[in-house]
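Design a sequence for this backbone.
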């Protein structure tokens, strides 16, 4: 579980997300990580997650690994799945940060992810990521995504770009903006059917 900017991994415990998740399936092992903004700024988030967490879990025989990302942690989860798809079996995004406004605008103006044609220049990290995301729309193998967000969230237009291509039952929304006041009720909705899926 990757936290948002300004949060720590403990935020998931403080808001009883870990407790509620384990109540639905007691044998789930939940790991929260203090992946603060410095890891993103220095671009060492992915190697640290790989070496310190995910690869070690695989080495222990853990067969199914899902990433959870809230806000900034959402982009971290997507980047990890893009970089190491062999380590990630599923992704839960809660109000994820999804990249620069110009990149999101280009996808939106094209009519969505399916219609968007990635530019030849893939040097920008978020352009490369959205090119990978586009693979969801053309049959390329990708880990399943569950998405939750507030309808008045500042990033909601970007969230809708992903929501548009997800299967029914994998998108959860409610009134409100960007914060735990909205995310906690969304977790209650997701947990009804989510936990069993995380182990298969």
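Sequence:
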């Amino acid at each position: 579980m990757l936290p948002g900017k300004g949060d720590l991994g403990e935020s998931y415990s403080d808001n009883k997300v870990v407790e509620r998740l384990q109540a639905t399936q007691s044998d789930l092992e939940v790991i929260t990580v203090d992946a603060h903004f410095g890891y993103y700024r220095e671009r060492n988030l992915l190697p640290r997650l790989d070496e310190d967490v995910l690869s070690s879990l695989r080495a222990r025989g853990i067969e199914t690994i899902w990433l959870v990302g809230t806000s900034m942690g959402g982009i971290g989860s997507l980047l990890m799945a893009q970089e190491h798809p062999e380590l990630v079996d599923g992704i839960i995004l809660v109000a994820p940060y999804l990249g620069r406004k110009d990149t999101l605008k280009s996808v939106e103006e094209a009519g969505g992810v399916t219609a968007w044609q990635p530019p030849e220049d893939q040097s920008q990290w978020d352009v490369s990521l959205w090119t990978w995301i586009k693979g969801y729309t053309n049959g390329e193998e990708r880990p399943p995504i569950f998405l939750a967000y507030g309808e008045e969230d500042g990033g909601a237009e970007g969230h809708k770009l992903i929501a548009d291509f997800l299967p029914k039952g994998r998108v959860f929304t409610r009134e409100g903006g960007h914060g735990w006041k909205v995310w906690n009720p969304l977790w209650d909705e997701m947990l009804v059917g989510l936990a069993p899926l995380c182990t298969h």
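The two ends are 18 Å apart (CA to CA).
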